[in-house]
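TEACHING EXERCISE
Course module: macromolecular assemblies
Task: Read the component lines below, then compare them to the predicted structure of the full complex.
Student: A.B.
Group: 4
Components provided:
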Amino acid sequence: MSGRLVAMSGLLVAVALILQVSLFDAFAWDGVVPDLVLMVVVAGALSRGGQVGMVLGFGAGVLMDLAPPADHAVGRWALALLVAGYVAGRFRQDSGRAGVLAVMATMAACSFVATSIYALSGMILRDPAVGFGQVLQVIGIGLVWDVLLTPLLLPGLLTLYSRLEPAHAR
Amino acid sequence: MTQLQNRPVTRREGLNRRGSLEPRDPRAPRRSTAVALLLACATLITLDQTAGALDPARRVVGEVFGPAESAVSTVTRPVTSIPGWFKTRSGMKDDLAKLRAENAQLQQQVRTTDYDRNRLAEYDGLTKAAEDLGYAVVPTHVVALGPAQSFHRTATIDAGSASGIKPDMTVVAAQGLVGRVLRVTSTTATVLLIVDGDSTVGGRASSSMKVGFVRGGSSLGDGGDSLELQLVDRSATPATGDTVVTWGSAKAAPYVSGVPIGKVTSVYSSVRDSSKTAAVQPYVDFGALDLVGVVVPSGTKSDRAIIDADGRFKQ
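Instructor-supplied answer key:
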């Protein structure tokens, strides 16, 4: 990973994280907000491959675990987003340059995988005591949010990532 | 073809999973990286579960992200208040009717409580001493709410150790109890809301003065945030409509006493252990938290104006 890629990813993740907790909490749907950090991870993985996706997901997840309102065990979002980055990377290998629908499908899959893994790790660690029905509801609403915002945000993120790429590597 | 035959094929990594000689995609995820990162996750989770080894890291990240969250929240306040504009006229009429009914009911109560008030005046002398030990409140804004995806109900407020806030202090809103401070940075603090699944507050049913525990993350009650109250005395039944207040902890940490928590909406009995659990509707609307106060000892040094025990602003 080049220095510029790391710097840009870090900045994007930080901005996404702050908007997620400070701006979108006012528009939350039953408390569920769009997972902007996941969108940055998916964009990185789709344009730069699974290797970058995994590392980016891990880094973004650790930041999400540590940044202020969070109170769960550190490493849970890191695990969830790491797997999401890997999954998004696999989608890229299979479909090459993806269309809008393929990107939305990837986003839906990653949203489902990430929130499910996070919830499962919580059930194993008994971190918060929540019911299965509530978990399914949160996963569902989160998935709808993420898919709805994908056509608005992902093209811009993908363009940012592909501009950074040296031309010979494309 | 010749090009392929000339390639050295001795390296195992040159073969992909299907056993063909295609060169490996350099951007595909490497197994070693995946294993290393997974192990790192496991290590982090274990470290955080066993000891507070990661608290310094949380603090450092908080020092950076807290002020950024405050800034974004302040700048976007005109935008985030938009949902409030869409309150319909009929909705407001309903609110008005409800408030009128409540007002009438309260007036009736006031008329009948003269006798009680006279008796209370006698006790007031005793409580004067307690009032001198009264608390002050640091007013702050909620600048970030944890998303429901994290299954934890936490918030960030824009006052920290510089304003005299320490962990395990009570956070209140105008309507009632909000939660307690978990950890602080110099300019922000993280608050555990009482509706979180890990939160337990000592509560007292105000009509019978029976004590019990109020837990968050309840699935009782009909929709929205709900708490559940279980009385210590298993034979007692909380009355529906009863107000639940905090009974306070030793040295007023983490909760000061006498703060209203919520109203009992319904009572469920468990056949198994013959105990009764009450669903409690909190007075505070946790979806629309904004101005809250942190209860600090009177005379705390603070970088902002604090509301003192007598209700006056003090610099």
